[in-house]
Amino acid sequence: MAAAWNGLGTEGGGEVNGQEFSKKHCYIKALKLEPNNAAAWNGLGTEGGGEVNGQEFSEKQCYLEALKLDRNNAFAWNNLGTEGGGEVNGQEFSEKQCFLEALKLDRKMADAWNGLGTEGGGEVNGQEFSKKHCYI
User: Fold this and answer.
1) Quick one: pLDDT at residue 105?
2) What is the C-alpha separation between 122 and 133, in angstroms, rounded?
3) Phi and psi at residue 18, in whole multiples of 5°?
4) CA 56 → CA 28, 77, 100, distances in Å?
5) What is the pLDDT of residue 119?
6) Which of 17, 19, 30, 64 is deepest in the core (most CB within 10 A)?
7) Each residue of 83-106: pLDDT tens digit?
8) Contact by Cβ (8 Å): 85, 98
9) Res 114: pLDDT
10) How many CB atoms lie within 10 A of CB 28?
């Protein structure tokens, strides 16, 4: 059932049994049912964070929760980069390092390339990319 709520959130929210649910509320519903749903944590972060089981989570905290559960979530890495980076499983990651992690997982992620360009470029999978090359 949590996957269905997460999916509805991904699709922009919608009506269930005559009641309208926003994207944010769909992600919160998913997390109440399955607190270990990394995709729902990332989705809630993209909606500005929110309250789950009585605790308030900021955007950044949502991305950190997602990465605690799934370090291979390229979207959460990219989003954490846009929030200034943070500590994942005891290791501190800068904005640039977050974008690099995202690109290690998905070299086609345009937002992460843009973020890496903003940070001056860097090495992705053994290949150096200048700031300019991140944008093209």
Assistant:
1) 97
2) 10
3) 80, 0
4) 11, 21, 29
5) 97
6) 30
7) 999 999 999 999 999 999 999 999
8) yes
9) 97
10) 23
Residue with tokens 């093209």, as numbered in its chain: 136
Per-residue CA distances from 130 to 85, 96, 107 (Å): 21, 13, 15
How many residues are recorded in the chain? 136
> Which residue's structure tokens are 């999916």?
7
The pair of three-digit structure tokens given for residue 104, joined into one six-digit string? 């290690």
Q: Tell me, letter by letter, the H, E, C secondary structure of 10-70.
A: HCCCEEECCEEECHHHHHHHHHHHCCCCHHHHHHHHHCCCEEECCEEECHHHHHHHHHHHC
Round to whole Å and give the CA distance between 98 and 110.
14
Specify the pLDDT at position 29. 95
Residue 54: CB atoms within 10 Å: 5
Give dist(CA 8, CA 36) in Å, integer: 18
What pLDDT is recorded for position 2? Answer: 86
| pLDDT beneath 70: ranges in the chain | none
Whether the model pTM is above 0.70: yes
Q: Which two tokens stand for residue 79?
A: 């989003």
